[in-house]
Amino acid sequence: MLAPVICLFFLLLTLSAAAAGRAPAPGLQPVKKAPSMDGIALPLVSFSSDQGFGYGAVGGMYLYAPGKTPYAHALAAQIFFSSRGAQNHYLRYDGPQLLGPLRLEGRLEYRQEKSSPFFGAGNLSAPNFRGNVEDERYNFDKGSPGFWVRLRGRPFGETHPFQSYVGYGWRNTSVAPYETSILAQEKPIGIEGGPSGQILAGALWDTRDQEGDPTTGGVEEVALRVSGLATFSRYQYAGVTLSERRYFKLSERLVFAQRLTLDMLFGEVPFFEWMTTGGVNISEGIGGMSSVRGIERNRFAGNVKAFSNSELRFQAARMSIFGQPVALGAVVFFDLGRVWHPGVSDGKWHDWHPGIGGGLRFSRRAAVVRMDYARSTETGRQRFYVTFGHMF
């Protein structure tokens, strides 16, 4: 599958550059000009042990303009189906300086999963699980249309590292447990499903040299989400997320990147929120492509989640296509995570769940495609991921 994906990626980059570099009028010297747009579209034809055979398409477009960093507008869309009955469709917009100094971000999505994973609560959940993600004991059917919108700004000026944001998110979750499932037996809060609206707020201290592919600096973030009757939610709970992302340039081509995340939920928390974190970049887990790679998606869940991601990023080659720079990179990584949940045994303090692996990166300016292979060192089971953007 890698060869056609790589070829298509570079073909689209070529078309983008060629469109921007048309021949000048007779008698005029050609002017080298950066294209005002990057476009990427990839077919999603894949297999993973988490979701089976998948097919669909995903695309992204970056529009550039003078004085707008890292871009003026970004649009992304995805249509995805899997052989296990999953659907994940979305449309996303990002305008870093759309309303003067304010950044407007939003996402409209529809998710449906015929076999959504649920292994119970806590750091030692489902001890009898042997890797069969199709086992009905560890699944349920879920549907969840929703949206979120966020307004982010720099109150002390464009060059100041402090940012703050406010927003709102809403989702209506339908839950259909299988008769033999752990979910049907345990009946946690949220088994009735229903709407969950959240007021979102947060603050960041961002000293990265660039947002899309940073090499120095970092981001510290504190995020709050509150859900209750006033937010059109069936459940009343709150969450706090603390995150640290740091980047060290070891050489001209080598960068060490580190992320630490702690997410805590309080109150009447529905079980389908146990797997999510807050903040600007929402993650799932513990387990999966956005938290601990190599472990089954959402394998460990609870009110408190902590995970660490360490990556050594190497820019292996730089090349020029129609005068435009393209980079090929490689990554090795080590992920680690665990959860705590009230009322269950979470094991000893050192009972963390690790995953290791490596991957490839194809990038042009703000556009990055990542492909990762990962393995759980606890179980030996393996995972493969293809998606847009760095993990952090």
UniProtKB/TrEMBL annotation:
One of its GO terms (molecular function) is protein transmembrane transporter activity. It comes from the Bacteria. Residues 101-392 form the Bacterial surface antigen (D15) domain. It is found in: Membrane. GO terms for cellular component: outer membrane; type V protein secretion system complex. GO terms for biological process: protein secretion by the type V secretion system. Keywords: Membrane, Signal. Its main location: membrane. It holds the Pfam family Omp85. InterPro entries: Bac_surfAg_D15, TPS_OM_transporter. Residues 1-19 form the signal peptide. PANTHER family: OUTER MEMBRANE TRANSPORTER CDIB (PTHR34597:SF3), SLR1661 PROTEIN (PTHR34597). This is Bacterial surface antigen (D15) domain-containing protein. It comes from Corallococcus sicarius.
